[in-house]
Amino acid sequence: MQPIRRVLDAVKPLFVKGGKLQRLYPLYEAIDTFLYTPDEVTSGPSHVRDGMDLKRMMITVVVALLPCIYMAMWNTGLQANLAMQELHLSSAPGWRGSVIAALGSGYDPQSWWSNIVHGALYFLPVYVVCNVVGGLWELLFASVRGHEVNEGFLVTGVLFPLTLPPTIPLWQAALGISFGVVIGKEVFGGTGRNFLNPALTGRAFLYFAYAPSMVGDAIWTAVPAVDGFSGATPLGVLASANPQVGMQAVLNNLSWWDAFLGTMPGSMGETSTLACLLGAVLLIATGVGSWRIMLAVLIGAMGFSGFLYAVGSESNAMFRMPPYWHLVVGGFAFGTVFMATDPVSAAMTETGKWFYGILIGVMTILIRVINPAFPEGIMLAILFGNVFAPVIDHFVVQANIKRRLARNAT
Q: Alpha helices, DSSP H only, in 340-409?
C-alpha cells in the first residue's frame, strides 16, 4: 500500500486550493479516505472524540449487508437455473451465456459455483451501474458545492441494487439511482439533510414510473420470457389467489423454512430473512442500527396482521396469511433491518423510535393486506414513516418540555 500512498501524496498539490485540479478535490479526497484513514484532526476548542465516525459507520452497514449480497448472487442464480431446468433451456441468453460457457460453470441448480456465477452476472452489472452513476452525481454536487464526497453513498450504492429484480434494465437502474441521489438527497443539501431514504426513493420512482419492470410474475426470475412460466413471489401468488384457497396457494410450492432461508423469487437481496438477521446482529452490537426501531416495526406488524388474520375475509386471500409468514416474505426483514433504521431519515428521539417503528409495521400490513395491488408494502410504509419522523420527534420533545416544566413548577 505504500506505493499508492506515495502516489496520492505526490498528486495532492494538484487538487488542493490553488492547484490546477482544485475543482476535482472531492474526487481525490474520496479515493484517499476510502483507502486510508484521514490525517486531519480537530484544531479548535475541546471536543468529543468518538472512534465510530461516519466512515466507520457506513463501512459497518456495508459489512452487515454482505450476507444479503451473497444471497443476491446465489439465490438469483439458483432461481434462474431452476427455471432453465423446468423450461429445458440449454443456455442463458445473450452475453451471459457466453460468459458461463467460457467459465464452464453450467446451469446446475445443485452446483454452488453454477448458482453464484449465474447470479453474479445479473447482480454485479446492476451494482456497478448504480455505483458509477450515483457516484458521478455525488462527485458533481460535491464539486459544485466545494465539499467532500460523503461516505453515505457507500450504503445507498449497495442498498439500491439489492432492492431490484434481476431482470431490471441497466438504464432503468441508472435512472432510479439518479432520482434517489439527486431528488431524494442532494436537492435537500446532501447526507444528513435528506428526510427520505435515498435508496427507497429511487426504488419508489421506478415502481411507479416503470411498473412493468418492477411488478408482475415475469420479472423475478432471470430467464427469457416464456409463455406458461411464472416466477411469482409468495406475496404475488397470495394477492391473486382464490380467497377460498388462501395460503394453500403459497404452501403448494414453498415452506416457511424455505422462505426464511430465502430460496424463492424476489428482489435480489431481500429474500433471505436469515441473511437480514445476521446483519441485524452486527448493526445492533455496534450501535449503528436501532434495536428499538426494529422491535417496534415487528410489534406493529405482528399486532396488526394478527388482528386482520382473526377478522378474516371472504373476498381477500391476503387476510389468510398468518402473522409469522409476514416476517419471511417480501422485503419485510430487509426493510426493517436496513431501511427503517436509517439514522438520517428515521426518528431521532428514543421514545419517537417506538412510535416511528410501530407506524411502519402497521402501514406495511395495511398496504399488503387491504390493498393487494401493492403486495409488498414495506417500501411505501418506510417512506411514509420518513415523512412523519420529524413530526413524531417534535411531539416527543414538546411532551418532554411540558413534563419538565410541570415538575419544576411543583
A: 350-365, 378-409
Count CB neighbours of 180 within 10 A: 29
What digits encode the pLDDT tens for the residues 138-160? 888 888 877 777 777 788 999 99
Q: Which cell is 397 given?
A: 420533545
Cα of 165 vs its chain's centroid, Å: 12
Cα dihedral 10, 13, 14, 17, rounded to 10, equals: 160
Q: How far is CA 222 from the centre of its chain?
A: 20
Q: Enter the C-alpha cell of residue 373.
A: 395491488
Which one, of 156, 152, 151, lies nearest residue 176 by Cα?
A: 156
Whole-number Å distance between alpha carbons of 75 and 81 = 10
The answer to whether residue 50 sits within a structural domain is no
- The amino acid present at 47, given as its one-letter code, is H
Whether residue 290 sits in one domain with residue 177: no
211 and 358 share a domain?
no
Grid cell 445476521 is found at: 278
pLDDT in tens, 335-382: 999 999 998 899 999 999 999 999 999 999 999 888 866 767 899 999
- Cβ neighbours of 383 (radius 10 Å): 20
Does residue 266 contact residue 214 with C-beta atoms inside 8 Å? no
Inside any domain, residue 188:
yes
Do 268 and 141 belong to one domain? no
How far is it, in rounded angstroms, from Cα 394 to Cα 275?
A: 35
Sequence-distant (≥ 6) Cβ neighbours of residue 312 within 8 angstroms: 319, 320
Q: How far is CA 192 from the centre of its chain?
A: 18
Residue 49 lies in a domain: no
Quote the pTM value.
0.87
Q: Is the domain of 318 the same as that of 387?
A: yes
**Domain membership of residue 11 as a residue range:** 1-38
Number of domains in the chain: 3
Same domain, 348 and 218: no
Rounded CA separation 308/194 (Å): 34
Cα torsion 317, 318, 323, 326: sign: positive
